[in-house]
Specification:
Length: 425
């Protein structure tokens, strides 16, 4: 099997040196009776032997020399599965160890890296980049792709502990005053969403489901009265009242509900870290939301409506979505440049999450690398090693021919000296 073109010049060089040694041996043979002819013949013959020996050794690593079934040849194809296992073990357990990765990560200041990156961009760059990305995504992603993304996201969340992440995010938000703005923004978004007919319909269905669950929990005469009372409830008026309440929370920073939510958020990180029962309830809520068909329908409808609105907006010369995102990114950029505490907190948060992921998945790193090498197959393993070490291996053949010739010449020189000083020997 011939190698890729990049290795051919080196193979031709090794072969040329070997042929040159053979030609030299043939040319010197008629003069072998003279001291100089014998010396040249010895050098050439030893070079041929050394070159052939190293050709056999180099070839035997990758394939059978001349196709002959000689034992202990074609070493890589015969042992490629063992090679894959040993490479995986070496890299996973001895090179990329937990201590090494952790120490290397500790030397990186993630916050400073982000700040240096933020210095190189401007507000205009952010808007232009956001517009290009948004239009590309809108062109490439099918209209109903959101359902598939949500399904994958739900599958990922099932096995991920969200309580520690929620605690870190809430603590970071409070340090920079994002919690109050987030509560107001979410209240406004929810109020506006309830004005959309499809979302309003889902909200009324949710109210019906809650009322039915409450009624089913009752027995006998109270259940009959509750069923009659719930039948008189105007679901649309309830939704209108909820929408007005959410709008009031969004418009008034000192709204009592808004203040209570902010105070509750202030205590939430400590409670999540110290109260296993609360952390368990957070995980239970996560699972309930993931499995809820009503929530899935609500998210699907919301994504479909959002996609329609975004498509219309992106068709304009300067999309509002890009301007809105660029404004937020500019605030983040300015915060990264001016707020050292924020940079330190981002650095700590990133390293904590990376360490968590590393601790969880390091045991499978060796197997991952082994499977990657195993996927190459015997021919792929041979080609990979030849691509990276083929030149050096061909120079081994050249060196074998040269060193063999020098050794043969040295030995013949010793022979000539012995004959010179001890002719009778």
């Amino acid at each position: 099997m011939s190698g890729p073109p990049v290795r051919q010049p080196r193979r031709r060089l090794a072969l040329s040196v070997l042929i040159a040694a053979g030609v030299l041996a043939v040319a010197a043979f008629p003069f072998r009776a003279t001291w100089w002819g014998g010396w040249i013949l010895a050098i050439a013959e030893a070079g041929v032997i050394g070159g052939l020996a190293d050709w056999f050794a180099v070839t035997a690593i990758f394939r059978r020399p001349l196709g002959l079934p000689i034992p202990h040849t074609a070493l890589i194809p015969a042992n490629w599965e063992l090679l894959a296992a040993r490479v995986g073990t070496m890299v996973g357990d001895r090179v990329l160890t937990k201590s090494y990765v952790t120490s290397e990560l500790a030397r990186v200041d993630v916050g400073a890296l982000l700040a240096r990156a933020a210095e190189r961009v401007s507000r205009e760059d952010l808007e232009a980049f956001t517009t290009r990305i948004a239009r590309w995504i809108a062109d490439e992603i099918p209209p109903r792709a959101g359902s598939g993304v949500l399904a994958r996201f739900r599958a990922l969340l099932r096995s991920y502990a969200v309580a520690p992440l929620v605690a870190d995010l809430v603590r970071l938000a409070r340090q920079h005053g994002w919690d109050a703005r987030a509560i107001g923004g979410l209240a406004r978004i929810a109020a506006q969403a309830l004005e959309v007919p499809s979302t309003r319909k889902v909200a009324t269905e949710l109210i019906d489901a809650l009322l039915d669950r409450y009624r089913e929990g009752s027995r006998g005469y109270p259940r009959l009265l509750l069923g009659f009372a719930f039948g008189l409830v105007d679901r649309d008026r309830v939704v209108d009242a909820i929408a007005r309440g959410l709008a009031d929370i969004a418009d008034h920073p000192d709204h009592p509900v808004r203040r209570r939510l902010i105070d509750a958020l202030a205590e939430l990180p400590k409670r999540l870290e110290r109260d296993p029962e609360l952390a368990g309830r957070v995980e239970a809520v996560k699972l309930e939301l993931i499995e809820s068909t009503l929530v899935a329908r609500l998210l699907d409808d919301a994504l479909a409506e959002l996609g329609r609105v975004v498509q219309v907006d992106l068709a304009t010369p300067r999309p509002d979505l890009s301007v809105w995102i660029a404004d937020r990114l500019e605030r983040v950029r300015q915060a990264l440049l001016t707020d050292a505490d924020l940079r330190r907190e981002i650095d700590r948060l990133v390293k904590t999450q990376v360490a968590t992921v590393l601790d969880r998945h390091h045991a499978g790193l060796a197997g991952f690398i082994e499977n990657g090498v195993r996927a190459l197959g015997p021919e792929g393993a041979v080609n990979l090693i030849e691509d990276h070490a083929g030149d050096d291996l061909q120079y081994i053949r050249v060196n074998g021919t040269v060193v063999g010739g020098l050794a043969g010449g040295a030995l013949y020189g010793v022979h000539l000296l012995i004959k010179l000083f001890w002719p009778e020997a």
